[in-house]
Amino acid sequence: MNWSKIVTSILLRIGGAFFTNWTKIKILFRGKKIAVLGPRSSGKTTLLQFLVTGELPREYIQTGKPEKLSGRMYKLEDLELIIKDTLDVPGDKLSHTEWERLCQEADIVCYLVDASKLHKADQDYQKNAQEDVRHIRAWHQARKSAPPKFCLVATHCDLIPDYSSLPRDRKADFSDEFWKKDSLQRIINLGGGSGYVKCVLGSLKDRTNTEILVGNIFNEVTI
C-alpha cells in the first residue's frame, strides 16, 4: 500500500529551554536550531504551538512522577522562539532534499512519529518511519565532526488503551517496554543506535500531557 503523507519541516531558533535549572538551559540552548520533522498527523503543529505560546513548570516533570509539581510557570514565549522555516512538502523522495537542508543546519533534530500506529504494528507506517530515519542518519553522518542531537518523539500515546489506562506512575514502565519492541529497536538502530538516539514517548492530548512531553524532550537533548 502506498502510504501518502505530507511532512512539515520546521526550523526553530531557540534562545533557551526548560529543565530543573532554567538559567542553565537558557545557556545550553541559546542560539540553537531545531529541525522538527515527521509524517502528517504526528503532532508537529500542536507541539509547535505549545512551544510558542505555552508554559512549563519550574521543576522538571518526569513521566513516571505521580503528581505534577506546583510552583512558578515559565512562559515559553519568553524564550523568544522564532519559527524560521515552515514548509509543507510531500512525503516522497523529492521531499528529502528539503529535509537534508534542515538537518544540515540544525543543532537538534526531532522526528515525531505516531506511537499508536507503531504499537499496532502498522507495517507500512513502520517501513516509512524506518526509511525516514535512515535518511536522517545519513545526513547526520555527513556532518562528521558536528552532527546534531537526534530525538525520536513518539506521540499520540493517549490512543493506546494499554497506556492511557495506566496511572501516571506506571507510564514510565510502559515507555520502557515500548522502546524494546523489535520494530522500534530497528528504527533506533537505523538512527544511530541507543547511544545516539534520544527517545521520548508521550501525548499531546491536553496541556498537562504536553508539558510532560516537552519537558522530557528538553531533558533528553541535554543529556
Description:
The chain is of the alpha/beta class and 223 residues long. Helix content is 41%, strand content 22%. The chain has 9 helices and 8 strands. It is globular. The termini are far apart.
Task: Compose a concise summary of this entry.
With 223 residues, the chain is of the alpha/beta class.
Number of helices: 9
Order of helices and strands: EHEHEEEHEHHEHHHEH
**How many angstroms does the end-to-end distance come to?**
39 Å
DSSP summary, beta strand count: 8
Task: State the low-pLDDT regions, or none.
Answer: 1-20, 60-71, 83-91
The shape, in one word, is: globular
Output the keywords.
223 residues, alpha/beta, two-stranded antiparallel sheet, disordered N terminus
Per-chain topology:
Layout: E1 6-14, H1 22-29, E2 32-37, H2 44-53, E3 55-57, E4 73-75, E5 82-90, H3 96-105, E6 108-114, H4 115-119, H5 123-142, E7 149-155, H6 161-164, H7 171-180, H8 182-190, E8 197-201, H9 207-222
Parallel strand pairs: 2-6, 6-7, 7-8
Antiparallel strand pairs: 1-2, 1-5, 3-4
Helix pairs in contact: 3-5, 5-8
